[in-house]
From TrEMBL:
This is Serine protease. Gene3D superfamilies: Trypsin-like serine proteases. PROSITE patterns: TRYPSIN_DOM. SUPFAM superfamilies: Trypsin-like serine proteases. Residues 56-284 form the Peptidase S1 domain. SMART domains: Tryp_SPc. Belongs to the peptidase S1 family. CLIP subfamily. GO terms for molecular function: serine-type endopeptidase activity. Residues 27-49 are annotated as: Disordered. Residues 40-49 have a biased composition (Polar residues). The keyword Thylakoid does not apply. Coiled coil: none annotated.
Length: 286
């Protein structure tokens, strides 16, 4: 039975060796990480190879390597009991090609999934507060020129900070690309973020994910008039570059509303800085 793949995008790592952040954030090349799920019988293709490259058979989400054994993603992306995450592929750039230049794909089995203790797992409500999960691999992730560490941010980005989002999500209402996409956004105040959802008649949709709205803690909102994250980018990275060019992971994409293309809404991500202790303690003790 062939696997259904959940795409995890953006390879960022906290450490190159356990519990040290000495070699992070330089250089940066966006990568794809594929998380394998066991397919439902109706979604299998017995004639397909075990390393599927047919985009239609992918359910897309994102994730970021945050250590040599751990990946960080959205809890929303892994809480599907009928499609358990069982392995990841790192270092793949184009879902429609095998052996493309500048990629060094490698597969890693997943040993453990840790959900943020305050995440509300209720598919009926779709609430996205504390939308984080960590995946632990059975074997150590090997870093190379295609897969290497980012830095984990300890402080939230200021308003108007430029950040980069990446993923394989939809670029308009009908097209989902096979090659990794990136775009620069500006961090917004949470008040301006809510106002943008009101202006585009998506305030009720925002309330469904954040019933108490954006409370000034735990989320980062970033937007641009003509681009942003969209369906399929959830779980992927929000990254800031400092003056030296070093890359810092600021957020994990959580909420992308339902509009893609030129009128896309601001991207709401779960703050890495506000969950720094949870992330680092999990890596240390899990």
């Amino acid at each position: 039975m062939s696997p259904l793949l959940l795409l995890l995008v953006g390879v960022a790592a906290l450490i190159k060796s356990a519990h040290a952040q000495t070699d992070c954030g330089l250089p940066y090349t966006s990568q794809d990480t594929r998380v394998r799920r066991q397919a439902e019988p109706s979604q299998t293709n017995e004639s397909a190879p075990s390393t599927l490259t047919v985009p239609a058979l992918y359910s897309s989400c994102g994730a970021v390597v945050i250590s040599d054994y751990f990946l960080l993603t959205a809890a929303y992306c892994v809480l599907k009991p009928d499609k358990p995450v069982n392995s990841v592929r790192l270092g793949d750039l184009d879902l429609a090609k095998e052996g493309e230049a500048n990629s060094q794909p490698a597969d890693y089995d997943i040993e453990l999934i840790i959900i943020h203790p305050n995440f509300t797992d209720d598919p009926q409500t779709g609430i996205r507060y504390n939308d984080l999960a960590l995946l632990k691999t059975k074997t150590q992730i090997q870093f190379n020129e295609a897969v290497f560490p980012f830095c984990i941010s300890r402080t939230s980005p200021a308003v108007n900070t430029t950040v980069t989002v990446s993923g394989y999500g939809y670029v308009n209402d009908s097209h989902q690309p096979t090659h990794l996409q990136e775009g620069e956004l500006q961090v917004m105040s949470l008040d301006d973020c809510v106002a943008e959802y009101r202006a585009k008649n998506r305030y009720n949709l925002l309330l469904s994910a954040y019933p108490d709205l954006l409370q000034g803690y735990g989320v980062v909102c970033a937007g641009h008039p003509n681009r942003g994250a969209c369906n399929g980018d959830e779980g992927g990275p929000v990254v800031r570059k400092d003056e030296s060019g070093r890359q810092y992971l600021e957020g994990i994409i959580s909420f992308t509303a339902d509009i893609c293309g030129p009128t896309v809404l601001p991207t709401i991500s779960t703050s890495v800085a506000d969950n720094y202790d949870f992330i680092t303690e999990t890596i240390k003790y899990a």
